């Protein structure tokens, strides 16, 4: 594994930095910095106590942890969430609860995973027409069932 891209972080006292659980993990687990209750069929912004300085041209994507999603019905609501390189506020994870029971997040629980991703900025330009394709304007369900 290479050293990778450096992301500077400040963190609440007593909390570990995001960490990869295996050598092949693409996402680094991030932990809750406080206890939070997520109501049934509700959602909450879970603080992580992390503040990042992401290099320009990169973003951090916030994604669900598959175990929480499968076993508890807990997932990142705006998945993937985006942390922009010019944001310096606390990273919070918007967790949703699809279950019929409240879900208690405890300080230190792994609540999401962070993925560093390279981004390209687009240059949007007005055009009089677009080129044609076999698909054309076929949208949702256009290929059938």
Description:
This protein is mainly beta and 145 residues long. It is 5% helix and 37% strand. The protein contains 1 helix and 10 strands. The strands form 3 sheets. A 4-stranded antiparallel β-sheet has the order 1-4-8-6. The chain has a 4-stranded antiparallel β-sheet with strand order 2-10-5-7, with no helix packed on it. It is globular and about 55 Å long. The model has no long low-confidence stretch (mean pLDDT 94).
Q: Indicate the proportion of strand residues.
A: 35-45%
The major pleated sheet works out as:
4 strands, antiparallel
CATH class of one domain: Mainly Beta
Name the shape in a single word.
Answer: globular
Strand line-up across the major sheet: 1-4-8-6
User: DSSP helix count?
Assistant: 1
Stretches with pLDDT under 50, minimum 5 residues: none
The Cα radius of gyration reads 19 Å
| H-E order | EEEEEHEEEEE
Which architecture of one domain per CATH?
A: Distorted Sandwich
- For the termini, the CA-CA separation is 42 Å
Structural class: mainly beta
Q: What would you say about this model in short?
A:
It is built from one helix and ten strands; from the N terminus they run E-E-E-E-E-H-E-E-E-E-E.
Helix-strand blueprint:
Elements: E1 8-11, E2 28-31, E3 36-38, E4 43-53, E5 58-63, H1 66-72, E6 74-76, E7 81-83, E8 90-97, E9 103-105, E10 110-118
Antiparallel strand pairs: 1-4, 2-10, 3-9, 4-8, 5-7, 5-10, 6-8
Protein traits:
145 residues, Deoxyuridine 5'-Triphosphate Nucleotidohydrolase, Chain A, mainly beta, globular
């Amino acid at each position: 594994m290479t050293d990778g891209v450096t992301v500077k972080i400040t963190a609440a006292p007593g909390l570990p930095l995001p960490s990869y659980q295996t050598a092949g993990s693409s996402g680094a687990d991030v932990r809750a910095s406080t206890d939070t209750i997520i109501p049934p069929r509700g959602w909450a912004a879970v603080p992580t106590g992390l503040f990042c300085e992401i290099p320009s041209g990169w973003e951090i994507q916030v994604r669900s942890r598959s175990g929480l999603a499968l076993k508890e019905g807990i997932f990142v609501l705006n998945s993937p969430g985006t942390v922009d390189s010019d944001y310096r506020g606390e990273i919070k994870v918007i967790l949703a609860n699809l279950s019929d029971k409240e879900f208690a997040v405890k300080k230190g629980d792994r609540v999401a995973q962070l993925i560093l991703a390279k981004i390209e900025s687009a240059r949007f330009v007005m055009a009089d027409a677009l080129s044609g394709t076999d698909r054309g304007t076929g949208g949702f369900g256009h290929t059938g069932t």
